[in-house]
Structures are given as C-alpha cells and as structure tokens.
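Moderator note: this is an archived Q&A kept for reference. The question asked for a predicted structure of one protein chain; the sequence and the answer are reproduced below.
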Amino acid sequence: MKLKSLLFGLVALLLAGACAAEPAPSASLLYTATRSWSNGIEERVEVYADGRTIMTHGDYEERITLPGDQMAELAAAATTPADAGSNGDDPILGVTIGSTAEVRPAAITPGSIAELLNKLLDSHTLHE
C-alpha cells in the first residue's frame, strides 16, 4: 500500500512539473503592468507578442496564451499612452508599453491599456 501511494505521489509530481514547464514566450515583450497593494502584495503581468502571458501574484505564477482578439484589443489601447494616476490609489498600478518608460502610478481609465492589463490580472481574460 505504501509503494502504491509513493508511486501515485511521484506521478503527480511529474505531471505537475510537466504542466509548469510551459515553454518561455518566443516573442518580444509588449506590455507590462505591476500592481502594488497597501498590504505589501506585489503582482505583475507580462504580455508577449505571441500572446503568451505570465502573471505573478505574490509567489504564485500563472501562464496563459491570449487569443488574437484580445491581443488586438491590447494593441488598440496601447496606441494611447497611459495617463498618470494618483499615489493614493490602492493598488498603485505601473504600466510599460514596449521599451517606453513606466508610467507609475497609472490611471485606470476606461478602455486604456492600464485598465485592460489590470482586468487581465484580475480575470485572466479581457472578456468576462
């Protein structure tokens, strides 16, 4: 019985490692957003040109691939620079488009790149 439990545990570990070993994005970094909460939690999202997205929530990392329609939405929103926000916001959001300087704090204006990246951190999609 112990051997059976040990084998089951080993298989579970191997499967977990295989799922976490998704290849790194193969394209350039397009958008980055960081959220800093007043309780000290830090979150980050990185969106690459191939749609691969890496989200970090504290110590937890998630990887997804955004579909083309959502990438197009982000590209359209990124044509307008991020507006400056307030240091009194919670969380404080920082946004970087490509290699431009980070806008921090960034305002979460409806339809802006900051709002979309913030939504992505919350929902893992731009469409509910």
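Archived answer notes: The radius of gyration is 18 Å.
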